[in-house]
Write a structure and sequence with these properties.
The protein is mainly α. The protein contains 16 helices and no strands. Helix content is about 80%, strand content about 0%.
Length: about 450
């Protein structure tokens, strides 16, 4: 008989898996912060170019890595089932898929000029943005392949390499920006275009470092990941796409909800935009905690499900959900107790601080919903359940969140508080439905599973 799981033991396991992923997510978001600050200190046009270029790149990036994220539950379940031979096949086919997905993304990034003209951006900003995107596009194949190797390592429960490699990338990002933006060490002064080249170089450095680690780790030789070069196989790529496409669409819908709300905020004045940016930036930083833990929940649930320890997989999922919720309750309390102090970190403008403080209190409310929805969807991914969560996100974000926010904020003229009410409603609905879904499909996972007999 296998020992009964305990909340304390399962929480420690999830934290051990998840904390390096939390650190990796924080390091990754720090790269965007560094790009923004260093380009902004060079010239306002370059700051605008990085902001616009990133706005175009992020939807492609988010959707693509969402698709590749399917490898995490697929490999976790195979590892739990001890089907080691199939793991190498999945990784190889994932690498092929990353190359195939990179091609259209590169083409799109290099042909956005007409879209920018249509949106009416300044000619100089368009010129810089096109150069930035051209440079950035050279790193797309590397970052997609890096994510495949990262998900492979994470699915085996090896999560520290993601943190270490991302920290290496952050160091290279700072050095690359300093060298190429300002023209140091004999290199040309490229401004925001240098930011694009620095990011592309960082993507390749991260991929090559993780590739060297993965290829050189003796324990991985049994998977035969790099043994034999085979062409893409429809069966394996089809499985990744079948599970991963709904994940990519789900992530795209959530990202687009926040993007649309930001655009609507832009119509309400500079103070509102600044206050919104402060509140959403701080909330994004705290969100990295449950996001990293949700990836650990996916791995833990997937491995236990692969072992046919069904009751334990359900227990691990709900333990992870409870852990994320408890942590986000703490961050919510922090926001509610010190909203003005948090806002004053970003600005000294009293009007912006006052508005940001009121939005931070609202952000405190959706901290709990955000923790519940991301951990619930992570638990569902561990079971390879991705299609229903996609429709949940469609309903929560596009049928409820955005229309309600627009109606309250613009129609009833509640302003930013109305728009944020829409965000809270969308996230809360997603949180409720994801967790009800996990409860529904695991309710029959009794204690009499195969591993416990």
């Amino acid at each position: 008989m296998t020992p009964s799981p305990s909340v304390q033991t399962e929480s420690r396991t999830i934290m051990r898996l998840g904390l390096p992923l939390v650190g990796a997510q924080l390091a990754q978001i720090s790269m965007s912060f560094v790009d923004t600050v260093m380009a902004g200190n060079y010239h306002p046009d370059d700051l605008a170019a990085v902001a616009i270029g990133s706005s175009f790149f992020m939807p492609f990036f988010t959707i693509s890595i969402g698709v590749l994220m399917a490898l995490s539950p697929i490999i976790a379940q195979l590892y739990g089932a001890r089907d080691l031979h199939s793991i190498g096949k999945k990784v190889r086919q994932g690498l092929w898929l990353s190359v195939l997905m990179a091609v259209p993304v590169i083409v799109l990034l290099n042909n956005l000029g007409p879209v920018m003209d249509l949106l009416g951006f300044d000619d100089e900003v368009i010129r810089i943005t096109r150069g930035y995107l051209f440079a950035l596009s050279w790193g797309v194949p590397a970052v997609f392949a890096f994510m495949v190797l990262r998900y492979f390592n994470e699915a085996l429960g090896v999560t520290r390499p993601a943190l270490y490699v991302t920290l290496v990338g952050l160091v290279f990002n700072i050095l690359g920006n300093y060298t190429l933006i300002y023209g140091r060490f004999g290199f040309p002064e490229l401004g925001a275009v240098g930011t694009g080249w620095a990011t592309a170089i960082v993507f390749w450095v991260m991929f090559l470092v993780l590739l060297a680690y993965t290829a050189g780790k003796k324990a991985y030789r049994r998977f035969q990941v790099f043994r034999g070069l085979r062409l893409p196989e429809r069966q394996h790529i089809g499985e990744i796409l079948r599970i991963g496409t709904p994940i990519g669409i789900s992530m795209g819908m959530e990202t687009s909800m926040f993007a649309i709300m930001a655009l609507l905020m832009g119509t309400l004045g500079t103070t509102v935009v600044a206050a919104h940016q402060i509140a959403i930036n701080f909330a994004a930083m705290t969100f990295m905690i449950p996001l990293g833990l949700s990836m650990a929940i996916t791995v833990r649930v997937g491995q236990l499900y692969g072992r046919r320890q069904l009751h334990h997989s359900r227990f691990a999922g709900f333990t992870g959900i409870g852990l994320c919720t408890a942590i986000m309750c703490c961050t919510a309390v922090l926001m509610m107790l010190f909203p003005h102090r948090i806002a004053s970190i970003y600005t000294q403008d009293p009007e912006v601080i006052s508005m940001a403080a009121s939005l931070l209190i609202m952000a405190a409310i959706f901290q709990i919903s955000d923790g519940l929805q991301v951990s619930g969807s992570g638990a569902l991914r561990g079971l390879k359940d991705t299609k229903v969560p996609m429709f949940v996100n469609l309903t929560a974000y596009w049928v409820i969140g955005i229309p309600l926010g627009y109606w309250l904020g613009m129609g009833l003229e509640w302003g930013p508080r109305g728009l944020w009410t829409g965000l809270i409603a969308g996230l809360t609905m997603a949180a409720i439905l994801h967790n009800l879904r996990f409860h529904y499909i695991t309710r029959m996972f009794g204690k009499g599973d195969r591993a416990g007999r």
